[in-house]
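> example.struct
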């Protein structure tokens, strides 16, 4: 079957995200946990933290080079991602980068974060706070 390139890239990215948990089971770690600048152990299985009567998701942000292929790739990995083209965010994204904000209240949030951390053009993922 001949699929257009953008569909092929999305399909391959989706397969990679789905395979990450299996890779961890057999001891293969291709991720860059040093890129994730917050403590994942504070999150429960649903990606929430805090007391039982006030759980909340953790929001995170990162910068990506400003081009359509990067946006497509990130959105195919993280369904919660929102791309901000005009805001530098706390990460202080430069003019040739876009700010991306996502959150942990999603299925397989750990695999999502690991897949994002594997992307060469993402240098760090930090918790963000809305004020």
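> example.seq
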């Amino acid at each position: 079957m001949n699929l257009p390139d953008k569909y092929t890239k999305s399909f391959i990215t989706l397969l990679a995200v789905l395979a990450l948990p299996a890779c961890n089971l057999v001891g293969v770690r291709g991720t860059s946990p040093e890129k994730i600048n917050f403590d994942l152990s504070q999150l429960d299985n649903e990606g929430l933290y805090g007391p039982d009567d006030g759980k909340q998701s953790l929001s995170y942000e990162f910068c990506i080079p400003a081009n359509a292929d990067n946006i497509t790739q990130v959105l195919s990995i993280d369904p919660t991602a929102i791309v901000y083209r005009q805001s530098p965010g706390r990460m202080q994204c430069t003019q040739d980068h876009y700010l991306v904000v996502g959150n942990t209240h999603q299925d397989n949030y750990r695999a999502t974060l690991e897949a994002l951390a594997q992307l060469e053009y993402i240098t760090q993922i930090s918790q963000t706070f809305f004020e």
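> remarks
The beta strands are 48-49, 56-57, 59-65, 82-84, 97-103, 126-127.
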